[in-house]
Design goal:
By secondary structure, the protein is an alpha/beta fold. It contains eight helices and 14 strands.
Length: 240
């Protein structure tokens, strides 16, 4: 496999961003302004640099606004839209997008977080190992807000620890996945289902793998973390 140019990337961008409504009323979370342009464009810059050419945006709340702002192409990438008429959750949205996924394995990204770890390296590893589902992990000093994972020596995830369980440091799901198409096809149709809470934990016995990575992470889902976004991306762009 040469790079990511043959892979479909799916961005889960359907969230309303309830917690951000006080600071960003009536704007879908992925259009939150960061350094004077929609947050989503920073995420897509990243995919473009990694060699991705085919992107599916799973939209829900504010779908029309997103399409108007972003359009059918961005840089060297072709964009298609999978619009849900009612909230389907992260897994339901992924299932709804299945007809638009051209590759046998998809790169799936949460639309409200950004991780600077090397996607290309992670994806090659997941293909080489033939994992049904694997995820990028980053090391956090504060696991309380996110929950964390336990792994064995091969990187196989043995347990998910819920948010608010224990605080401390640990490996966190960075919200970037490599998922085989047949796993997506098995998600029930038209139901509101969470990838993180339902589908991924149900696959632990099948074998889910974590790819620990160095990098910087931000989740723009709360007013406090969104307030840090300008500084975060200034730092990221400065580092490139």
């Amino acid at each position: 496999m040469t790079g990511l140019s043959d892979i479909t990337a799916v961005i889960l961008a359907g969230g309303r961003g309830e917690r951000l409504q006080p600071v960003l009323p009536n704007i879908p979370k992925v259009l939150a302004p960061v350094l004077g342009r929609p947050y989503l464009t920073h995420l897509m810059d990243r995919l473009d640099c990694e060699g991705i050419r085919d992107v599916v945006l799973c939209t829900g709340y504010g779908a029309g606004q997103i399409m108007d702002h972003i359009g059918k192409s961005y840089r060297t990438m072709t964009l298609s839209y999978s619009e849900e008429s009612r909230p389907l959750g992260t897994a339901g949205a992924l299932k709804h997008a299945l007809p638009l996924i051209k590759s046998g394995r998809a790169l799936v990204l949460n639309g409200d977080s950004y991780f600077s770890g090397t996607i290309d390296k992670f994806f090659r590893w997941s293909v080489d190992q033939d994992h049904p589902l694997s995820m990028m992990l980053y090391f956090s000093d504060e696991t309380k807000r996110f929950g964390w994972v336990s792994m064995n020596s091969e990187g196989r995830i043995t347990r998910f620890h819920e948010k608010d369980s224990d605080s401390g440091s640990g490996w966190i799901n960075a919200g970037i996945y490599s998922i085989k198409k047949d796993i997506i096809a098995a998600i029930p149709e038209g139901e509101c289902i969470s990838l993180e809470q339902c589908i991924i934990p149900s696959l632990i016995d099948t074998g889910i793998y974590g790819f620990p990575c160095e990098g910087q992470f931000i989740d723009i889902g709360t007013p406090a973390s969104y307030a840090m976004a300008d500084y975060f991306f200034k730092d990221i762009h400065h580092g490139h």
